[in-house]
Amino acid sequence: MTDPVFFRPSGPLDLAEVARLVGGRLASGDPAATVNRVAPLDQAGPGDLTFFENPRYLAQFKATTATACIAAEKHAAAAPAGTAVIVAAQPYRAIALVMQRLFPDATRLKGPWGDDGVSPAAHVHPTARLEDGVTVEPGAVIGAGAEIGAGTRISANAVIGAGVRFGRDGFVGPTASVTHALVGNRVTIHAGVRIGQDGFGFAMGAGGHLKVPQIGRVVIQDDVEIGANTTIDRGSNRDTVIGEGTKIDNGVQIGHNVTIGRHCVLVAQTGISGSTELGDYVALGGQAGIAGHLKIGAGAQISGASSVKDDVPAGERWVGVPAQPIRGWMREQTALKRLAAATKGERES
User: Fold this and answer.
1) Cβ 322 vs Cβ 308: under 8 Å
2) Would you place residue 42 in the very low, low, confident or very high pLDDT band (cuts 50, 70, 90)?
3) CA 280 → CA 223, 296, 308, 317, distances in Å?
4) Which of 9, 48, 72, 295 has a CA between 20 and 30 Å from the CA of residue 180?
5) What's this model's pTM, rounded to 2 decimal places?
6) Residues in the active site (predicted)?
């Protein structure tokens, strides 16, 4: 069996160009030396570029055989002989810039079929409108009256529902479905995502649960990325809104009428109940649960596996079950440890 390479470098970069690209400076090494691969510290060798940011990996940094390493100023002196150092204020962001230059195909996703254009095996309704440069792969369905902007790729077996508006230069992964939605430009939707299905709305009663019609939409603004198997319900009587630049991990659930601000980060298995509002730049850790009808203020951070049942003021960090401000939680943990130690001492005496 051959060993496939899915992302090939676009060509070598010399170290002077790397330094310019990341807004840094070459602290040591030959500016004409070149790199054409990116590798982690413990696997990098000649021809590779790596980066060092987390002090936990200092030993690997000191032992690396990479041609060059991007590091902060305070760590530059720890680099091994023979490894050039490019100093940058934020090494992780710097390596991301280099990878975008070296591997442009990794940010311009293609579906599994790989060919451009509208496949004869796709199902495009006669009333759908596709701008020039749209790709629709085999098995994909484009519904009646849907509109898709130039440069967008619809992968195999994906579904774009009737009347959906989808912007330019986007990507819809295999088997994903988008219905009842208005989607902006440069939006990436990974495999298995479900957007626009019914919200979970029932008027409960002793005689049975009466379904509440879900008549809203999902509005997704520009530059949003949505991870595999995430679900975003359409609104019940208003829109569910995802703000521009927001990044959503795999397996996230967003309920009806939720409003998410700009540039938020939602990590895997997060759940947000209906009608909750997140301000701009909110970060939710993995498996965080947010109850319905809450307001999470701009810049707030919720730790992973926390359960939020109250409004969170802007800029605060909350943790725990139920979640609370981190300072109060830490005091409680310290008190519990002291109590446990004292109880243990009493039992042993």
Assistant:
1) yes
2) very high
3) 14, 9, 18, 15
4) 295
5) 0.92
6) 256 (proton acceptor)
Q: Where are the domains of the chain?
A: 13-106, 176-349
Q: What would the pLDDT profile of 232-279 be if each residue is shown by its tens digit?
A: 999 999 999 999 999 999 999 999 999 999 999 999 999 999 999 999
**308 close to 292: Cβ distance less than 8 angstroms:** no
**SS3 state at 337:** helix
CATH code of 13-106, in short, is 3.40.1390.10
**How many Å apart are CA 281 and CA 265, to the nearest integer?**
7
Instruction: Dump pLDDT digits (tens) for 197-222.
Output: 999 999 999 989 999 999 999 999 99
Query: H-type helices in the chain, by residue range?
Result: 15-22, 58-63, 91-102, 326-348
Q: Is 190 a catalytic residue?
A: no
The DSSP bridge pattern shows strands 84-87 and 231-232 to be unpaired
Q: Measure the CA–CA gap between 302 and 288, rounded to whole angstroms.
A: 7
* Contact status, residue 237 vs residue 255, Cβ threshold 8 Å: no
String of DSSP letters for 278-326 = E-TT-EE-TT-EE-TT-EE-TT-EE-TT-EE-S-B-TT-EEETTTTEEH
Cα 191 to Cα 41: distance, rounded to the nearest angstrom: 31
Is the confidence at residue 109, as pLDDT, over 70? yes
Domain 176-349 homologous superfamily, CATH: Hexapeptide repeat proteins (2.160.10.10)
What distance lies between CA 344 and its chain's CA centroid? Answer: 45
CA 260 to CA 267: how far, in whole Å? 14
pLDDT score of 345: 65
Catalytic hit among 125, 209, 256, 293: 256
CB 123 within 8 A of CB 141: yes
